[in-house]
Amino acid sequence: MTRLFKFTLSLLPWIPAFFCWVTTVDEVRVLEGGSITVPCRYDPQYANHVKYWCWGSMREFCSSLARTDETHPTNPTEDKVSIFDDPAQAVFTVTMNNLKEGESGWYMCGVELGNGWKPDDVAFTKVKVIHGMSVMNSVVSGEEGGTVAVECLYSERYRGSEKKWCRSGGWSSCLSTGSEGSYEDASVAISDDRTRAFTVTLKKLQMRDAGWYLCSAGQQQVPVQVQVTPRSSTTESVTSPPTPGHSAVYVPPPKPITKESWNSHRQMLESVAVCSALMFLVGLAILARKLWILHKEYSVLRQVKEIEVRFPDNPGNVSDLQNAPIVFHNKETKNTHLY
C-alpha cells in the first residue's frame, strides 16, 4: 500500500500534461539575417501565468531569452528577441531578428506553473538559419502590356554581392545592379535594399517575356517562372443612328460559361444519364424475357418433332390434339411419353 501511495505521488507532477497543453510549430526555416515569428498556443487556464522563450533542448538547461513578466518596453521590429502574450486568443508570439547561422537549434515555448510539484508546460521547435537565396513567389503572372514584380531574398553574407536577373539558359541576357545597387531600362528595373532583398520589376510585358528566369546573388541562384497572359480584348460597340423604316435590334453577347452554369448543366446531364441507364436496363430485361419465352416454345416444338420421328405410323398430326394419342409430360425428367 505504501508503494502504491508513493507511485501515485510521483505521477502528480505529470497530471497537468494530460489536461493542459502548450503547442507550437515543429520547425522554422529562415535565411541568415532574416526574422521569424513563432506562435505558441496554450490552454486558456494558463492566461494569467508567465510565459517564456528559451534556447535549448532540455527544460532543465534551457537559456532564457525572453519572458512576459519583464518590465522593460519591447520593440518587435528592432529587439533581438521579443515576446508578446495575447490571453484573449490564448497564444503568445516570439519574434527574433537578424538571425545568424550559429543560432540554429532547439528552442522552447514555456508556461511557468510556479510550483515545485508541477513541471512547467513546454513545447519545442527547431529553428534552422541557412544562407543562400529564396523568392517570395516562384511563379508570377502578369497581363500583356502590364507590370509584374519579383522579390528575391538573400542571406546576410550576400549583402555586398552583385545581384543579377538572368533569363534561364542564356548568361548573356543577365542584367546586373552593379556597384550602385540598381538597374533600369525601358522594360526592366532592379532595386537592391542592401539588407535582405532585391526587387525585379518587368514593365510593358510582352508574350515573348514568358519563361524561366534566375535571381542571382554571388554564386547563389533561384529559379522564377514568369507567366504572361494575353491582353483582355474589350470590344466597344459603336452606336449608329437607325435607318428610317428599320428598327435596331440589340443582340446580347453570349454569356460565358461560369462554374455555376456548368454545375447546373452537369446536374442535368447526370439526370439524363441515369434515366438512359434505367431505360437501357428495362429494355434489356424485356428482351431477356422474350428470349426466355421463345426458348420454352422452341423446347415444346422440338419435343413434338421428336414424337413425330419416333412414331411415323401415326395417321394424324401429333400437334393436332384431336387425332393424336394422349401425351403425358413428366415434369421431373422433362421427357414426353405416348400411350
List keywords for this structure.
single chain, 339 residues, alpha+beta, 5-stranded mixed beta sheet, 5-stranded antiparallel beta sheet, 3 helices, 21 strands, 20% helix
Report on this model:
With 339 residues, the protein is an alpha+beta fold. Helix content is 20%, strand content 35%. It has three helices and 21 strands. Strand 13 and strand 14 form a beta hairpin. The radius of gyration is 43 Å and the shape is flat. The relative contact order is 0.09. About 6% of the residues have low confidence.
- Structural class of the helices, strands and pairings? alpha+beta
Residues in helices, as a percent range: 10-25%
Distance between the termini: 100 Å
Strand order, main sheet: write it out.
Answer: 2-9-8-4-5
Low-confidence stretches: 12-19, 235-240, 245-251
Helix-strand pattern, N to C?
Answer: HHEEEEEEEEEEEEEEEEEEEHEE
Q: How many strands in all? A: 21
* Whole-angstrom Rg: 43 Å
Overall form:
flat
DSSP strand (E) fraction? 35-45%
Largest sheet: 5 strands, mixed
Q: Taking all residues together, what is the mean pLDDT?
A: 79
Query: Number of DSSP helices?
Result: 3
